Amino acid sequence: MRCKCYICQNNGEACPHQGEDTTRHVYYASCALTYLLAMVSSNMALQWINYPTQVVGKSCKPIPVMILGVILGRKSYTWKKYVFIFMIVVGVAMFIYKDPKGASPAGGVGIGLGEVLLLLSLTMDGLTGAVQERMISESKTKSGHMMLNMNLYSIGYLAVALLVTGEIFTFASFVHRYPEVLTKMLIFSICSALGQFFIFLMVSDFGPLPCSVVTTTRKFFTVLGSVILFGNTLLPRQWAGTAFVFSGLTLDAAFGKSPKKKVEVEVKESKE
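-> structure tokens emitted (272 positions)
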């Protein structure tokens, strides 16, 4: 459906709005589903692992986004990008590894259900990024269309889940007992919508991998806040892993960019 704004209908100039959306809705539907599964798995993991472990574990998000982006999204990256992402993997592994004698603040030995759910969440993150890569490469999907349609499908999925599980009645009972939660939910929703606006804008303009790297860097301050405010302790090895993770992220931001524009300019000049 064509845009019906004044500029498009009368002046014939380039439309300043999002324009016509040609993206296949199966992409929106699958992307919304994997996004929800990633969020649900990540939140459920908190029942078995502590918050800093979950947060730094989710810092591994660029890895599945990169791998599945290459396999399914038809992307390619420089060798430096792979090195920096590998640094992130090593740092995350250092952080979530549990000492055999139970010295880890997360408790337990080996990989438990919390870690499995965390891996499932990361896999869903990778699938979400791969589908978004397809959207951008095939239809040049704009941020507004992506945000609107993904949220519409998400509302549909969640409505069905609430009715099937009966949690909608539990929620109504909870709100009846604690009505003050509605104000907090409203504030949370507004902040979430504002955050989503910039996230989808970055996905559509720069791609899922840079977006995942950017959103991961904020987790360092989330970890510090959790440690300081809620008393979650970190082992020296976990602090070293945290430093390794964010060193990799910093190096990736500084040196991991592909010299695509430079190559294109040189090719153009050689043709001329």
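The chain has 13 helices and no strands.
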